[in-house]
Amino acid sequence: MHAHLPALLPTVRRACAVLALWLCGQALATDVVHWNRPVSETDQRRGYAEQLLVAVLERTRPEFGEYLIGYAPVHMERPRQLREMKDGELLNVTSNPANPDWLRELTAIRIPIDLGLQSWRIALIHRKNQSKLHAVQRAADLKRLRAGANSVWVSATTLKDHGYTVVTGNNYEGLFAMLMADRFDYFLRGVNEIFPEFDARTRQHPDLAIDDGLLLYDAAAPLFFVSPKAPRLAARIKAGMEAMLKDGSLERFLLEHHKPALLRAHLCQRRRIDISLRPPDPAMAARKELWFDPFDPRHGLCPGRTIGPH
After folding, report:
1. Residue 76: CB partners within 8 Å, gap ≥ 6?
2. First CA to last CA distance, the chain
């Protein structure tokens, strides 16, 4: 649990001196965040989101005051997350790709936390299947292969809705074992996700590989969602995200965390296939400033090059 305490008046300092620091933090905290626990020690998917949440809460301290961040007692998959988020006791803030149920039933902060970077996807594969991916030139070719995904992920629904063959599992860690067991041919991961996942699992799965040819786009929009029982917290996170978007610090935060992965991905050398170009919310689609373009020359990732859709 993180406790962020302000500079205290002398009388408050004296009072705190006779109490445990944790109790003092609880008394002074204005907003308490209950955040989902990772699946495992190798699950780094929410690291960026958690660090961004801290940056947002820090940004809004002058207006909203202090905060605490703690983890839920257990990891929750998305169906339970939705239930607990509506209740607001064990979980009151989370980050997931937007889908209609979540947009309808929770308070969505409608700024993609990664400016849509997760929309750009690369495949994890068994190294023996690299030739299958080399043969893919367009969407019709890829639809003949089997994608792997968690049954409750938005990406699984998107792939199915667009005519792709999808083999589903119910366990995040189990999907890597399924890929190695040839249950499916490729496992799409965001360019912001794939390298930490690969690096953390190559010892356990020495035949795990990263496809070197394809780049998929699916208009994913990971958002902060807040329990409807926590309107003040929602207002705080929205204010912080809008402020960081407006002054460019959200994009700078994104590049600070993910530029090494973007460079490692060699995006310019890949064949692009668009799975979906439609974000889940028309209002977000209309705000061009919400979407990071890795091929914009000012980022220096792909100078003088564009990649056309297939």
Report:
1. 36, 37, 84, 90, 91
2. 46
CATH number of 2-116+221-299: 3.40.190.10
Its pTM stands at 0.82
Task: Give the full edge-to-edge strand order of the sheet including 67-71.
Answer: 2-4, 67-71, 31-35
Rg (C-alpha) for the chain, rounded Å, is 21
Residue of 20, 60, 33, 43 whose CA lies nearest to 197: 43
Which tens digit of pLDDT belongs to each residue from 40-82?
Answer: 676 676 789 999 999 999 999 999 999 999 999 998 888 999 9
Domain with CATH 3.40.190.10 in the chain: 2-116+221-299, 117-217
Q: How many residues does the chain have?
A: 310
Distance, CA of 103 to CA of 127 (rounded, Å): 38
d(CA 307, CA 296) in angstroms, rounded, equals: 11
13/11 Cα distance (integer angstroms): 5
- Which fold does the domain 117-217 belong to in CATH? D-Maltodextrin-Binding Protein; domain 2 (3.40.190)
